[in-house]
């Protein structure tokens, strides 16, 4: 009878993906890295053909069952990419943190389906632990991303508010705090609009 890991490897090969192994270790979790290699590529009929390989560790102390769970998760990413809207896939490819978190959850749901299809039990503490740690790592990244956005917004708005306040003081303009706030908000919105146009132009 095939072991759990090889069942998933055979499934990976059936999906026309290569299977590779490496010695990479995660800097964050300190565990062997499992990955899905892909590119943003479509055929003439706009079907996704960007899947390249699934990579697992050469040497690992993990159980055969855990290896199967993690490999099925990477294969799950491929199956999700196959059905994803091209525009959403583009945003994901470019590193949208919200999409990364959402797709990570979907990939684990897909991993569960794959394991069930291959007669691998997912009602185990090992599956729950591996899935939770995987999702948690993306949740931490998303939280940091949101905090950075909020901090940058506060910094930029505070700077604009300070500049408007200085100008109104030097010009002896008799405007209230509310007026200064409104002017600062309008300037801030203008800054965001200009910055958005600049990014669009740089991509085109």
Automatic annotation (TrEMBL):
This protein's name: Uncharacterized protein
TM stretches of this protein: 149-169, 175-194
Keyword terms, alphabetized: Membrane, Transmembrane, Transmembrane helix
């Amino acid at each position: 009878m095939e072991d759990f890991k090889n069942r998933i490897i055979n499934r990976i090969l059936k999906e026309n993906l290569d299977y590779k192994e490496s010695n990479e270790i995660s800097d964050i979790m300190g565990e062997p890295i499992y990955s899905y290699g892909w590119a943003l590529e479509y055929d003439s009929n706009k079907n996704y053909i960007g899947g390249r390989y699934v990579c697992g560790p050469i040497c690992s102390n993990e159980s055969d069952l855990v290896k199967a769970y993690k490999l099925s998760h990477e294969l799950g990413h491929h199956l999700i990419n196959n059905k994803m809207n091209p525009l959403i896939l583009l945003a994901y490819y470019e590193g949208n943190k919200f999409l990364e978190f959402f797709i990570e959850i979907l990939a684990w749901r897909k991993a569960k389906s794959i394991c069930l299809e291959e007669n691998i039990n997912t009602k185990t503490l090992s599956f729950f632990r591996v899935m939770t740690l995987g999702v948690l790592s993306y949740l931490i990244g998303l939280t940091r991303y949101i905090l950075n956005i909020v901090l940058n917004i506060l910094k930029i708005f505070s700077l604009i508010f300070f500049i408007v306040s200085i100008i109104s003081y030097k010009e002896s303009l008799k405007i209230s705090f509310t007026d200064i706030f409104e002017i600062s908000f309008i300037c801030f919105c203008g800054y965001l609009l200009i910055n958005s146009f600049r990014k669009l132009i740089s991509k085109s």
